[in-house]
Design goal:
The chain is mostly beta strands. The protein has one domain: Jelly Rolls (Sandwich). 6% of the residues lie in helices and 43% in strands. The protein has one helix and ten strands, in the order ββββββββββα. It has a five-stranded antiparallel sheet. A hairpin with a 5-residue loop joins strand 2 and strand 3. The protein is globular.
Length: 157
């Protein structure tokens, strides 16, 4: 089984709806299945944007951005560095980091599929717009993230 030492998710999206604040559900934007490591970007019922990864100890670790607004174009980037940190960017700005232990990503021999806009088997549908999904097998630099955002990426049309 391959060990993943780093990766980057980069996604443009518009959230037109959110889960109910009184529910535990989430709107899944991108879910990386568990065959070679589990990770996701999703929005919670309290309008938080979350980038998270499940490690071999069975725990989820994540970073959040608060107060995501409906009907606004966002560019989100999540970066994972094994044994170091997860971090999250929104538009062209660094928003937060979370230290993580030196475990590998969680893997499952049965594996769950990777999905866009949903989480297989759960009510976690993202009833909104997603565009320009990029998954890199490396950590994108700060300058690269800012450049992607400044290029305009997506106008929402």
């Amino acid at each position: 089984m391959e060990n993943i030492n780093s990766f980057t998710f980069s996604i443009w999206f518009i959230a037109s709806t959110f889960p109910s604040p009184d529910s535990l559900s989430q709107c899944m934007i991108l879910y990386k299945g568990s065959l070679h490591g589990e990770a996701s970007i999703h929005i919670t019922g309290t309008n938080q944007l979350v980038f998270s990864a499940k490690l071999a100890d069975g725990n989820w670790y994540g970073c959040t951005v608060n107060n995501i607004l409906p009907n606004k174009i966002y560019h989100v980037v999540g970066r994972y560095i094994k044994g170091n940190e997860l971090d999250i960017w929104l538009n062209d700005s660094f928003k937060g980091t979370s230290s993580i232990p030196s475990y590998n990503l969680f893997t499952s021999t049965g594996g769950t599929n990777s999905t866009i806009g949903a989480y297989s088997g759960y009510m976690a549908f993202f009833n909104s717009v997603i565009d320009d999904i990029c998954i890199y097998n490396r950590v994108s630099s700060d300058a690269e993230i800012q450049s992607i955002y400044q290029q305009g990426g997506w106008t929402g049309n």
